[in-house]
Design brief:
Helices cover 76% and strands 0% of the residues. It has 181 residues and is mainly alpha-helical.
Length: 181
Amino acid sequence: MRELIERARNGDRDAFAQLAAGQIDRLNAVARLILRDADMADDAVQETMVRCWQQLPRLRDADRFGAWLNRILMRAVIDQTRRWRRIQVAIDNIGAGPATPDTSVDVANRDELERAFRQLSISHRTVVVLHHYGGLELTEVAAALGIPAGTARSRYHYAMSSLRAALESDARGAVAREARG
């Protein structure tokens, strides 16, 4: 990979294409997990690849390419979130009719977790995704995001506490609804 990076740094588009092809799926998965929207994730990854091409000549250490690329992705994700907040538009429901609820426990659990996860800030979601999905240690998450290790640990702790509290709140609400019904 070091050879591809060096060739791409010197302007070899084919080398960059190979380098990008090796990273694109991972970047896309991370962006989708954080942003929870496929189109926004695709835009963030595209922006990441453009910035990577533009900034690659300034990469100091080819061995740190992965962490460097993660930082670029995180900046693109944050920029995408800011853009989305500015242009968010209410869309009328087209009237597809009432949806039939799926009563499977797996779907209910996934939906509860999704609701709780969406309540986290982007910075907290990012730490959770990079740690659990990306398999990075919290010190590696900190390096990837360009933040102190203590900040990464704090964000992770806060995120997990918030997720736990949201899930427990949903469970208490379900018990109360059953008791009333």
